[in-house]
Design goal:
The protein is mainly beta and about 120 residues long. The strands form two sheets. Strands 2, 4, 5, 6, 9, 10 and 11 form a seven-stranded mixed beta sheet that branches. A four-stranded antiparallel beta sheet has the order 1-3-8-7, with no helix packed on it. The N and C termini lie far apart (about 40 Å). The chain has no helices and eleven strands. A hairpin with a 6-residue loop joins strand 5 and strand 6.
Length: about 120
């Protein structure tokens, strides 16, 4: 059974930091890309980062570059999304998703998804 479970969401003040976790089970994370996406009500789902399974190369959109960082702990089969200098516009449900090999540009190309974790940035 392939399963992804996000955790770490919550309420944080603007300018604060938050770290999200994506724990994988049922497969070895090393060979898979993990993408992070977010979606707010009425908004399209957008990618906020991805780390490839082979080279561990990373991708981030301009909206979060310099603020979000993806890392992986293969021993724990877990990928993290470190979010710094958070803004109110970062408020959304955050999801992790996986696809074999390299990162893909479209969210529909990812095979398995977690349940999501809410991130709220507010003072």
């Amino acid at each position: 059974q392939v399963q992804l479970v996000e955790s770490g969401g919550g309420l944080v003040q603007p300018g604060g930091s938050l770290s999200l976790s994506c724990a994988a089970s049922g497969f070895t994370l090393d060979y898979y890309a993990i993408g992070w996406f977010r979606q707010a009500p009425g908004k399209e789902r957008e990618g906020v980062g991805c780390i490839s399974g082979i080279s561990s190369s990373e991708w981030y959109p301009d909206s979060v570059k310099g603020r979000f960082t993806i890392s992986r702990d293969n021993a724990k089969n877990t990928v993290y999304l470190q979010m710094d200098n958070l803004k109110s516009e970062d408020t959304a449900v955050y999801y992790c998703a996986t696809t074999e090999g390299s990162c893909r540009s479209l969210w529909v190309d990812y095979d398995y998804w977690g349940q999501g974790t809410q991130v709220t940035v507010s003072s």
